[in-house]
Amino acid sequence: MLQADVGIILNHFNYSETSVILKVYTKKNGLVSIVKKGARRKNSKTAAAAFQALSIVSVEYYYADKRDLFTGKSVDLWKPFKTLHTDVFKSSILLFINEILYKTIQHPEENEPLYEFIENFLIGMDQAEFNPNVHLWFIIKLTGFLGISPDIDGYKEGYVFELAEGGFRPARNLKEDSTPETAALIKEIMGMNFAALLGQTQESGEHMKIPTKLRRDTLQALIDYYQIQLEGIKSINSHLVLKDLLE
User: Fold this and answer.
1) Separation CA 171–CA 183 (nearest Å)
2) Which residues does residue 162 pair with via DSSP β-bridges, in sequence order?
3) pTM, entire model
4) Angle between the N-to-C axes of helices 112-127 and 88-104, in degrees from 0 to 180, rounded to the nearest 10
């Protein structure tokens, strides 16, 4: 059955001399693998930009249940980005988010709210001025779609974030716990929408300012949290680029 869909490119691999295999997170069918024959030929109608990380594309592919690889008819940019792939700061954050999504989205189940969350974030990030905290907001909010959202109901001032359990508790000086400052920041960001983070609401007025060390410590705590909570995530490395770029 020919399926018309929209999706977000998570990865692509060369396949034979002229074709590629695309890992696409689609709106209708979740994660799918699509082989686009002839895409690497010089006269191919498929633009190379359509294969860039986290590009939003319109796709047509022959879908069938119980298959792992589908033949693609067309892959075209649906919402071209103006800055995400050209701004060095945004593209570095994009690389990190791409790694997170590629390693956490492993199953083909449809999840339209998750798809729309990712799509809206990418469009919003493309249109806004660069913000050094957007990746923290994204991976904190993503936990809700992955079923590992921190339990903020038990938070109190001075508590730490317990990575193994996903809750907040009094400090115990354990390696598995965050600092109180990181816990407070995670709790604060969880209550913010994207516009508030960027300073686009009347109440905020300007984007959230986070000290460099706190941003670094919070990012590391969240990466550790993902690795503890989700099986199959053995390493996340692209945040090291952010460390050099944002400090």
Assistant:
1) 10
2) 167, 177
3) 0.91
4) 170
Compute the distance between CA of residue 10 and CA of residue 240 in angstroms, rounded to an integer. 20
Distances (CA, A) of 95 to 52, 92, 237, 242: 10, 5, 10, 9
Place of tokens 């995400």: 84
Specify the DSSP element, H or E, that contains 222: helix 212-229
Structural domains in the chain plus CATH codes: 2-77 (2.40.50.140), 88-246 (1.20.1440.120)
Contact 166, 148 (CB under 8 A): yes
Backbone angles phi, psi at 12, to 5 degrees: -150, 150
pLDDT for 175-219, tens place per residue?
Answer: 778 999 999 999 999 999 988 888 765 454 456 788 999 999 999
- Distance, in Å, from the CA atom of 195 to the CA atom of 202, rounded to the nearest integer, reads 10
